[in-house]
Amino acid sequence: MLFNSLAFLLFFPIVFILYWSIPRKQVKVQNLVLLVASYVFYGWWDWRFLSLIAFSTFVDFFLGIAIAKSEGRKSRSYLMISIFVNLGLLCVFKYFNFFIDSFLAIGETIGYVPGITTLNIILPVGISFYTFQTMSYSIDIYRKEIEPTKDFVAFASFVALFPQLVAGPIERASNLIPQLVGKRQWSHKRFRDGLFQIVVGFFRKVVVADSIGSLIDGIYNAPELHNSSSILMAVVLYSFQIYFDFSGYSDIAIGTAKLLGFEFKPNFNLPYFSSSITEFWRRWHISLSSWLRDYLYIPLGGNRKGLVKQYRNLFITMFLGGLWHGSSWNFVVWGSLHGILLALEKRFNLIPNRYRLFNNIAVFLVVSFIWIFFRSLSFEDTGIMMHKLFSSDYGKPFIGNLSIFGTVVYGLLLALIFDTFLFVRKVRLEEFGSRMKPWWYVAFLTFTIINIILFYSDANNFIYFQF
Amino acid sequence: MKKKSITLFLFILISLLICDRLVYIALHGIEENVYTGQSVGKANQFNSVKDSVDLLVLGSSRAARHVDPESFSIPGYNMGMDGTHLGYATALISTLKKEGQLVLVHVDHHEVYDIDYEGDDMLSLLNESKDSDAMEDFIKKYYPEEIYLSNLSNCYVYNGKVLGMLKNAFLGKNTGSRSNGFSPLVPTKNQKETFEAILEESGITQRIDIQEPVEVNHRFESFVDFAIEVAAKNHSSLIFFTSPSLNKVDEEIRNSTADFFNTKGVQYLDDLDFFKEFNIDYWKDRSHMSKMGAELYSIKLSKEIQQVK
């Protein structure tokens, strides 16, 4: 089920009313409602893949208990089984064809043609998110940072909780399980914040990101047909599309969770106001970057084993971070370039300790440039786009449908003014709703919702669903 | 605490409801005076003439670019619209009241058998449904949720239309004169050269493959039935036609299309091969004739219809 679908607009109020009508003491019943709702939410897309979530849930629930009960080697073995199962699911469903294709390509270059073929495997939506979530649960238990839960329904709800199931944020067990086990209190502040964030998220997604998508998809799909101005426009606009698409999704997820009484960690913090790539990654997809930091970068040695190893660790982390995004070399190159830039920033001490406009512009341009790898359909297209960017074929850019172009300009302008306001006033979106005066709050939501109704673009999938 | 939240929520709902109605009234007021542009202006022109003219041409951009009502001996209007198909045309037919009209509906062979077609092109007329019960009933039959949503939020009917409408209202040339809806294509020298290059590379005609199994789309059939019903009620003549194109389909498909309309007891004219010989001056691209080609075809169509009638 998509957040931006009529089905969700009917589904959520039903779940919300049912959930809050259960007495506060009946936490298990509330969790059961959440679990069933989450499975319906996911099964709406394809019920067959519910078995994968259920499998991952069973395995990690029992392994979590086993890890906590045992010590030393035994405990480590259970952890290895958990990691093997979760990464195994990812490898089969997400990377199998990629590895086979790459193997075949290498074989061809040395004249060896192995008799293996790829399989027609459907990528289950959200698999990268929930496998990382369950894996971190086992690792945290092994590290004795958390205790395993004995409440199966609470654990199953933690894995499948519908606001974050298909595209994150990747919630940590240490944050979410205690909330699922404990009683939930209705909070007016949380209600205001949640509703506000949902509405802002919808605006970011269906007005800004989707309109940009309608305008630039044609350019990215056939860059050879467009001039340099159009390519430049597409590159810059894609930076905004992916930001407003994914942060919009996260806003809806976090806001929805708030309405159900949960506090998720923020996932975005105005990343395009960063003065360095390092800062960008502290503000962009925070739940993934902090996951990679805690479960990959630090275990690799982090910055504790000398500068050279720190650069290596940064590169490996970002290389695998790129691969996490998708089974394509484009993503690997995208991640690796970020890894190299992070290492260069450390090496040449290019990270300012306060905001600098010049750095901000430079970071935006560099990040936008690297997004080309992320969005292009092939390396060939990436090459064409880069060649055109540095050629002199600048002319009238492709505008396409005037109405869509107008919506892009209008929506982007509103969204950027709002983000700039948040940045200048140093306010977090997550808590902005409750800080507004009630009349301003009502007026703001009314204005935004009317704009969503008038300018929303036909539902596109969220970009991060494919990961 | 819950009470406070419910009160706030109710305030938001009331505020939304009031603003929605106010914005709708403002936009509707603007819309009524827009007579330029595709999305709103042309529909307004259609509304203003549909009950007075004797000839109406409906269909996709191929209808809009290929049939000149001036070639017919009766007053007419061409309501062909870019990017639309039979769903849109039938929604317009649902609003017709005048008796004895000649209604020409353009269809392409592949549209008849397109299994993915659901008629959602009719939804671009959602704003018109607010002023026409007949159209509202028609859309409700296929997309009830859209009508419920548009009743909940009146502004919903203007989704995606606002900026174009405002542009045409405040910057458009509302000269007061009305056109007959025919919008012929006059290729520039550059366009002609590009088209020639394409033809040289990939041949003059192109085959359109029809997806297997070849079955008439149920919704398409239901639209045809509805159009026949309205025409019978109004004692109007309904004729479906396919205009010339360089995109060709198998003879078998053409025959089964003719059979389909024949079984329905409605006239169908297949003019796909009207031009026996290729002349680049008659074409803008493979799907669309140039003004020169369209004028020749319109005269032929007019004569053909006189014979049929």
Order of helices and strands of chain B: HHEHEHEHHHHHHEHEEHEH
Percentage of β-strand residues of chain A = under 5%
Structural class of chain A: mainly alpha
Counting structural domains of chain A, the number is 2
Low-confidence stretches of chain B: none
The averaged pLDDT of chain B comes out at: 92
Number of helices of chain A: 18
The most extensive interface between chains reads: A-B, 27 and 27 residues
User: What structural class should be given to the helix and strand makeup of chain B?
Assistant: alpha/beta
Multimeric organization: heterodimer
Q: End-to-end span of chain B in angstroms?
A: 74 Å
Number of strands of chain A: 0
Q: Largest sheet of chain A at a glance?
A: none
Radius of gyration of chain B: 22 Å
How many helices of chain B in DSSP terms?
13
Order of helical and strand elements of chain A: HHHHHHHHHHHHHHHHHH
Write the layout of secondary structure elements.
The complex is a heterodimer of chains A (467) and B (309).
Chain A: H1 6-20, H2 27-46, H3 50-69, H4 72-109, H5 127-142, H6 152-160, H7 162-165, H8 173-181, H9 188-221, H10 228-259, H11 277-283, H12 286-297, H13 307-325, H14 329-347, H15 357-375, H16 379-389, H17 402-425, H18 438-455
Helix pairs in contact in A: 1-2, 2-6, 3-4, 3-5, 3-6, 4-5, 6-8, 9-10, 9-17, 9-18, 10-15, 12-13, 13-14, 14-15
Chain B: H1 2-32, H2 37-49, E1 55-58, H3 61-66, E2 76-78, H4 86-93, E3 102-106, H5 109-112, H6 126-129, H7 133-142, H8 144-152, H9 162-170, H10 189-202, E4 206-207, H11 218-234, E5 237-242, E6 247-248, H12 251-264, E7 267-270, H13 291-308
Parallel strand pairs in B: 1-2, 1-3, 3-5, 4-6, 5-7
Helix pairs in contact in B: 4-11, 7-8
